[in-house]
Amino acid sequence: VQLQESGPGLVKPSQTLSLTCSVSGGSVTTTKNYWSWIRQPPGKGLEWMGAIHYSGSTNYSPSLKSRTTIARDNAKNMLYLQMNNLKPEDTGIYYCSLGGLYWGQGTQVTVSS
């Protein structure tokens, strides 16, 4: 399974972040696992943000739930992360992962005016 994140790189505070994760070698609808978004702020550990199950159900970190939406495109075999009202502390590297077993290379997100 291969995952590839992509995103805008630089986002201004209060704006919305939209990231995509392209999946190959697996299916977001039939690979029986959770497809997760995880981030790592500079100098800190990994933070699980949320996940979408292959069945379509979603779960979110309580601390991020109010600002985060995870979705998928079944036809394109892609995952999406949307986060609203970005803050400077949302700066970090954002990863998509299949069950913690397969990871993308990550995409840098910097929140700055």
How would you explain this protein's 3D organization?
With 113 residues, this protein is mostly beta strands. It is built from no helices and 11 strands. The strands form 2 sheets. Strands 2, 4, 5, 6, 9, 10 and 11 form a 7-stranded mixed β-sheet that branches. A hairpin with a 4-residue loop joins strand 7 and strand 8. The radius of gyration is 13 Å and the shape is globular. The termini are far apart.
Chart the SSEs and their pairings:
Layout (H helix, E strand, L loop, with lengths): L1 E5 L3 E2 L5 E8 L9 E7 L6 E7 L4 E3 L7 E6 L4 E6 L8 E7 L3 E2 L3 E5 L2
Parallel strand pairs: 2-11
Antiparallel strand pairs: 1-3, 3-8, 4-5, 4-9, 5-6, 7-8, 9-10, 9-11
Tell me the overall shape.
globular
Unreliable residue runs: none
- Percent in strands: over 45%
Q: What oligomeric state do the depicted chains represent?
A: single chain
Q: How many angstroms does the end-to-end distance come to?
A: 36 Å
- Rg value: 13 Å
Mean pLDDT across all residues, rounded? Answer: 96
Largest sheet: 7 strands, mixed
Structural class: mainly beta
H/E topology pattern: EEEEEEEEEEE
Number of strands: 11
Approximate helicity band: under 10%
Number of helices: 0
Descriptors for this entry?
globular; 113 residues; four-stranded antiparallel beta sheet; 11 strands; single chain; 51% strand; mainly beta; seven-stranded mixed beta sheet
Short description:
With 113 residues, the protein is mainly beta. It has strands spanning 2-6, 10-11, 17-24, 34-40, 47-53, 58-60, 68-73, 78-83, 92-98, 102-103, 107-111.
